[in-house]
Amino acid sequence: MIVDDEPPARDELRVLLDGAGGVTIVGEAGNAIEAIAAINRLSPEVVFLDIQMPRVSGIEMLAMLDPERAPRIVFLTAHDEYAVRAFEENAFDYLLKPVDPARLAKTLERLQRSRAPQNLAVLKAASRLRQIPCAGHNRILLLRVEEVEYAESRASGVFVVGQDGQERFTELSLRTLEERTTMFRCHRQFLVNLDRIREVRLEEGGLGAIGTLAGHTVPVSRRFLAALKEKIGIG
């Protein structure tokens, strides 16, 4: 899969990959938000990922991927010497733009020869999520993490509820939100924004319930109640 915000760059790489043989291009995306949905849907083995993209960079996009479903990444960069050095140190492959056919051939050979997993955590560590991409009617909303009251996983997907009371679907997994934001897991299916807690109600059987600033109720399971109380400083 090719992810680049510049159509001519995508066209150029597509032509080169088609000419190389042995490669099937399953999809393309012009920005990180489109790419996340496409990766979840298409499960590509390899993603050629541009670093410099508007709103959400390629590096930031990595923090939004489900670690259990993450493809192998080949970075595309024009001039970022520091990034190139970091990729080399951590065994990531990269291509300088414009892409040289001979260099691409070496990259494809390396991908065929080695199936070793990449350590995405090396690059994710410096990229906490500042915003969560949410699907709306004919639009994508980037919701700031501090605006989120809680997130819930359902059979139909993951939904985040903002301080405005509206719930929105996101392609991000609950695990990704837990690992890449400051939201706290209070239940197998729920994460809560600790800064949006108004009260914690203790219930029978070691259970609890959170009342948020916007008036929502979020369940707390026995497994997470003690850790939540410790986190917010109550005995």
What does this structure look like?
The structure is a single chain. With 235 residues, the chain is α/β, with parallel strands linked by helices. It has helices spanning 7-20, 32-42, 58-62, 81-89, 101-113, 121-124, 174-180, 222-232, and strands spanning 2-3, 28-29, 46-50, 72-77, 93-96, 131-136, 139-144, 148-154, 157-162, 167-170, 184-187, 190-192, 197-202, 208-212, 217-220. The longest helix has 14 residues, at 7-20. It starts with a strand and ends with a helix. The mean pLDDT is 87.
How would you briefly describe this protein structure?
The protein is an alpha/beta fold. The chain is built from 8 helices and 15 strands.
H/E series: EHEHEHEHEHHEEEEEHEEEEEH
Radius of gyration: 20 Å
The main sheet orders its strands as 2-1-3-4-5
Apparent shape: elongated
State the helix count. 8
- The oligomeric state is single chain
**Unreliably modeled segments:** none
Helix share, percent = 25-40%
Structural class by sheet pairing and helices: alpha/beta
Average pLDDT figure: 87
Question: What summary fits the major beta sheet?
Answer: 5 strands, parallel
Number of strands: 15
Task: Tell me what portion of residues adopts beta-strand conformation.
Answer: 25-35%
